[in-house]
Amino acid sequence: MIKNVFWIGVFCVFAVVSGKAQEKVTWKDLADVTFTSRYFDTTDDYFLVPDFGPNVKALEGKEISITGYFLSLSPEEGIYMLSQNPMASCFFCGGGGPESVLEIKFEKKPAFKTDEVVTITGTLELNADDINHCNYILKEASGFAL
Q: Has residue 19 got a pLDDT over 50?
């Protein structure tokens, strides 16, 4: 009887842990998006607005893990990014599209350095409307250097 209860407990723990496991994502996965130019009155300018594909939409709200280059844009304001490319060739410098960066909202301030290769885990939020934030945002994020 005790043996059966033990194995049922082990099964339940495994089921909960496997249900909460993060999904490993690559930059290629995040490329399932197209962009159109849209005018915004608030800025009197045009911005690229994403239309997320079904593969990316399926990741929304899930805990994902992705590896890239850490960018510390404004640490005093908590503004950090993860990029497919190093700082010198990231999206902001013309080295890729908006799908090649993620905005990171860390639980604790990281000790990473710019261009350090890191793996970040967090809950993926898709952003198609707020031009003051990236299209991909990882919330409640944590990470480690490789």
A: no
